[in-house]
UniProtKB/TrEMBL annotation:
Lineage of producing organism: Eukaryota, Fungi, Dikarya, Ascomycota, Pezizomycotina
Protein known as: Histidine acid phosphatase
Extent of the signal sequence: 1-18
Family: Belongs to the histidine acid phosphatase family.
Domain of life: Eukaryota
Listed InterPro entries: His_Pase_clade-2, His_PPase_superfam, Histidine_acid_phosphatase
Keyword Membrane: yes
Length: 497
């Protein structure tokens, strides 16, 4: 019996010694369900609030709770420690409120016992709202770049990026776009009865459509918005409306086709393998991830949790750059509300208050949940077209550096001197998290002229489609602000958020 117990103990010891430890995480999160942008101010819906709260609760059960399934080393399980969290969001109400909702799930109210303190006169002060925990969210104004790597971060790499605008416009000149426009014309005309009674003018239809920010910046003077018009209207309606006009047209196959075409359209606006500047959003995000995780390692798991809120375009651009479509074709589609991708720092080395692993003993694991984590499964996927789920830290950084943009100089070199906050004296900076993908080549034409040509050709395509819709739907074009929307029927949304 003693001999048998010795064998059992010998078999268990290696497992205990090799137990994995999470050193820190970076979570990039999409906002929850929101109201239409046609009737500002846009707000996070109750459904969206519930989605991000549930996601935060899931990550609490995974990383933070005292009984967490994958606890982060040294994390405070009940009372939040500001030094252990870094949370950032752009200046957008939906994204900021989503961040707050997520944090409420991650660190819920602690109750009267923990949520109180005794002051000098001996009296006890109770924290309001049952020990509700106040967690700051760094608000980031949309900006194109930073003065030095690490000084700040930005979440919208395309903002003011001249070459990214040109590259995105080039999709509308591609054979793929032309072919799909021709092949799907009759299909979209057949679906028009679902939406053509909701709005009184063509302007209102485009005002409420899903639209690429890159295209909107070029065409904003014309107040024309066009991408995935019908799918956005249908998608929001299917979530919030109990009745939909001409709903008999929304068969499962038609809904699938609308979604598939929208996915293809938006992915091609966000990423192109031969012109990586189009995915500047993903390049900036990659630098943020490396910089944040590097800070976690340098601070010995402080901060432990990095959270940033962003839009689906950021996801799509990063998916393309990181070659995630090689792992699953689903990475070429628009991710659902409250989706999240996670980068975990993991080690099998000993970790305690006096011993912390070197970078040689640290790996990175990528995970993604397409929708509210806990409801949608959080699965791990290999990055960069490789087969390994976990990559050594040095390999991970090396692969990310191939496309990451982590400094103003690198951003300006990639985006062009005419981009926001750039000038002709700006030069590229290379190195960790600051290398730049190949910039779009104008083929001998100046970028300003190239941009105008792309804009005008795109405008011509869109005006042709507008004319077709006016002919088919009986619409008339009016000046901006003169049209009024019918309050009934399908509700639409705009923007890439």
């Amino acid at each position: 019996m003693v001999h048998i117990n010795h064998l059992i103990l010998s078999a268990v010891l290696p497992v205990i010694a090799a137990q994995e430890t999470i050193l820190g995480v970076y979570i990039f999160h999409r906002h929850g369900d929101r109201s239409t942008k046609s009737y500002p101010p846009t707000h996070l819906t109750d459904l969206g609030y519930a989605e991000v709260f549930q996601s935060g609760s899931f990550y609490r059960s995974r990383y933070v709770d005292s009984n967490a399934s994958n606890p982060i080393f040294g994390i405070s399980s009940d009372l939040v420690k500001g030094s252990q969290l870094s949370v950032q969001s752009p200046t957008d109400d939906v994204l900021q409120n989503s961040a707050s909702g997520f944090l409420q799930g991650l660190y819920p109210p602690v109750g009267a016992t923990l949520g109180s303190e005794t002051v000098a006169n001996g009296s006890t002060v109770q924290s309001p709202l049952g020990g509700y925990q106040l967690i700051p969210v760094s608000v980031l104004a949309p900006t194109s770049a930073v003065s030095q790597p690490g000084d700040a971060v930005w979440l919208e790499g395309t903002t003011g990026c001249e070459n990214a605008v040109i590259s995105s416009n080039n999709y509308f000149l591609s054979q793929d776009f032309q072919n799909l426009t021709s092949k799907t014309a009759s299909f979209y005309q057949s679906i028009l009865p679902v939406v053509n009674n909701t709005f009184t003018t063509a302007t209102d239809i485009y005002k409420n459509a899903y639209a690429s920010k890159l295209l909107l910046r070029v065409l904003s003077l014309f107040n024309i918005r066009l991408t995935s018009i019908v799918w956005d209207l249908v998608q929001v309606s299917l979530i919030h409306n109990t009745t939909i006009q001409s709903s008999e047209l929304l068969t499962p196959s038609n809904i699938l086709q609308l979604q598939t075409l929208s996915d293809h359209h938006e992915f091609n606006l966000a990423y192109n393998a031969s012109d990586p500047v189009r995915a500047i959003d993903g390049a900036v995000l990659a630098a943020q991830v490396v910089q944040a995780l590097n800070a976690t390692i340098a601070g010995k798991s402080t901060p432990s949790i990095n959270v940033q809120l962003g839009e689906y375009a950021n996801f799509l651009a990063f998916f393309g750059l990181a070659q995630l479509p090689a792992a699953s074709v689903n990475f070429t589609g628009i991710n659902n509300f409250a989706s999240s991708m996670v980068f975990e720092l993991v080690t099998n080395s000993t970790v305690n208050n006096t011993t912390y692993p070197s970078t040689d003993d640290i790996s990175v694991r990528f995970l993604f949940a397409n929708g509210t984590a806990g409801q949608a499964p959080l699965n791990s996927y290999p990055l960069f077209g490789q087969s390994q789920i976990e990559l050594p830290w040095s390999n991970f950084v090396s692969e990310m550096d191939k496309f990451a943009i982590g400094s103003q100089d690198a951003w300006c070199s990639t985006c062009g001197a005419g981009s926001t906050a750039c000038n002709t004296t700006t030069s590229a900076t290379t190195g960790s998290s600051s290398s730049s993908p190949t910039a779009h080549s104008g083929g001998g034409i100046s970028r300003a002229v190239d941009g105008v040509i792309g804009a005008m050709v795109t405008l011509a395509v869109i005006l042709a489609l507008v004319a077709a819709l006016m002919l088919v739907g009986g619409f008339r074009l009016v000046r901006k602000g003169t049209g009024t929307a019918n309050n009934g029927g399908v509700v639409g949304t705009t923007g890439k958020a």
